[in-house]
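haha ok so turns out i had the wrong file open the whole time. this is the CORRECT one, sorry everyone. sequence first:
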Amino acid sequence: MEATGCGAPEQAAPGRGVDGPVEVRINGRAESIDAGCDIEAWLRGRGVDPVSVVVAINGAILARHHFSGRFPRAGDRIEVVRAVAGGSALEADPPLEIAGVVLRSRLFCGTGKFRDAQVMARALEASGCEVVTVAVRYFDLEVDRTPLLDHLDGRRYRLLPNTAGARTAEEAVHLAELGRAATGSSWVKLEVIGEPQSLWPDGAATVAATAELVRRGFTVLPYVPPDPVVALQVAAAGAATVMPLGSPIGSGQGVLDQGAIRRIVGLVDVPVVVDAGIGSPADAAAAMEAGAAAVLVNTAIARAQDPVRMAGAMGLAVTAGRLGHLAGRIPRSEAASPSSPAAGVPRLE
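then structure:
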């Protein structure tokens, strides 16, 4: 472990202690720091104003006028604390949990439609997402290309194979099994398309496939129409989430019926992830404001003029929409309501 130094040389205090790094615990974590730096020099080297913090060493609070001249010793337990507000809104918000897996990011990303794998990798990085979808397709033996999975760090991203293109419950189950074998992931984004023009999901087939995949040990995240009845049925069949569409896949029309999303959120006891149709960060924020637990975005990022910048914007929008939902918007009103007091305005007459 590399030792933490004092910072700029002129910041080191006189009267140095024993030279070389020593092992200490700082705020509960093991670190090596330079024994020749006193506490004041060490704080300043870390960019911390000593006046702004309290330091305790081995349980005893160190007076600020003793910061200079107190050198760390091997085994010291150093605590650096300051007074802060009682936690941010995000800290108060429990993290998203799906099938026992805790996720920090509420943005899921797709991997299709990017102009190349390098742009895809940079966009995923900028988005902050942890869950990425991958499709299952025949391998073209005549084309030499780097496999997609070579660009996805399995330690960083949870792969979510999808059954895109399935037209029946049986096809979807087969694609899910192939996806599990290809990725090692038992999570599956279930899609069963019932109408090819709008790519509208087949509710009945999706419910049937959900039940069968759950029986086979999959964690099922089914893509469904914005229909509360179908949402309740897939949840009852064992789905880990419900993923209602915002608008047709790839259309960029946004969330056409926020009321439907709110109704589904209020009915099911699993996370609701809005999938399909997101076109802009405003759409992602609107889905989150409607109460969604997360949003899945692909085309809006991959086909943006600057996919990497758009990915970052989507990550921020999901966070903003979540905070807006937790904060609670004001009621809509047909009439204006002045922000300043109506009485007591100075008049010229």
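The two ends are 76 Å apart (CA to CA).
again sry for the mixup
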